[in-house]
Design brief:
single chain, 491 residues, 3-stranded antiparallel beta sheet
Length: 491
Amino acid sequence: MRRSVQARHDAVCGAAQRDGGRPGCRARLRVRREVALAGWLGLWLLACGPAPRAPAPPPGGPPGTSIDRPAMVERVRAELRSSWRAYTRYAWGHDELRPVTRTARDWYGESILITPVDALDALVMMGLTEEAAAARALIDERLSFDKDITVKNFEITIRVLGGLLSGYQLTGDAKLLQLADDLGARLLPVFGSPTGMPYMYVNLRTGQVSGAKTNPAEIGTLLLELGALSKLTGKPIYHDKARRALVALYARRSPLGLVGEEIDVESGQWVSPNSHVGGGIDSYYEYLLKASILFGDAELGAMWRASVAALDRYLADESTGALWYGQVDMTTGRRTATEFGALHAFLPGVLVLGGDVARARRLEASCFQMWQLRGIEPEVIDYRTMAIRAPGYPLRPEIIESAWYLRRATGDPAYLAMGQVFLDALVAHARTDDGFTVLTSVETMARGDLMPSYFLAETLKYLYLIFAPDDAIDLDRVVLTTEAHPLRRTW
């Protein structure tokens, strides 16, 4: 789900965005008790060390005990319903809504229905049956990929291909699988590089590729979607191409076990040696683990374990008693930056899936400390000085995603309280009369004008899951993609 930080910052601040990537600059609080809740919750969580035992509750009783989970579920459902209705009113048939100006945005000049496809499984999961039926009808009747447009392979894979596959599994609508198969075939030319690692862009009609200089996230975040497509259609080529690319990238890690920030897929040479877990790298690590789980792939599991050991050894950094993951040179291990941001906040959730709950708790506490700086998280901070380096907030889901995984793994009501803080802040600062919009600065709470599709697909979905019963997702059979699309193992 994760992109270049600067690209996102430029997009949220109004720069033109040719490739349709996520906008990316990932005040007031309405009620004073939110400030108090955030304060004591953060202090309590920061006290959580690596020991697996539960810490003592803060004064006044365990956090989260007064939260009415069914009521919170209804709050989130209401926000999804109102956001979807705003889309239908002002952007129906287009890719995304600009809620402030009440206009539509299409990524490539003509729509490929990114919001309806991306949001479909969220509508189904939260029981918005009329809205889900309308989205399905629109997709079935109007979606076509026979377009002379050059798209960003990574974004279209995680948002559109993933959305079609999860929508098919949830509804049984065969047209969705047919569309996924057609899209998958049109994306395959990206794997035609000498290394097998994908180019960044492809024309959906001609198959012309471009963008040889890319990053680990855009190379390694394809296997869940293409692998599931392979299993559901009986066409091994999808799985094999995506897996080969992932293994080829892993084979080019440094002697320390780290990958860099940018690589040339034609030469296989690293362009940037910066190693971190933020935008441009993050979901590469996520998919090593999640693909090993979804497909029972022991080799990928071993690759994940070797990779996370390198992250813990070289990137992990203690600062004022808190755990962070900074930036180093991939070859020497020399620390090059002490930056952490909204995109990095995916890591606690992945650590939970990998079995390291204690480390995940500590890192999520650091993420929440970042959120508390201004009452909503900035895109990037310097964790040594706690200075904000990129002030935007583009409605990112990662910190919420990790809170859900931790709530599931620990049963700790502190993560319910954390979820309420997140929802209250979103409503206070990012809600408009017609959906939610990105913030260009959490320091001034200045607003941009975009409701990204992932806000419905991920941010609201993970808020819902924090408060929903555990059986809302069967984690023994289901893996959530980096775009939060649930893929169920039926093979």
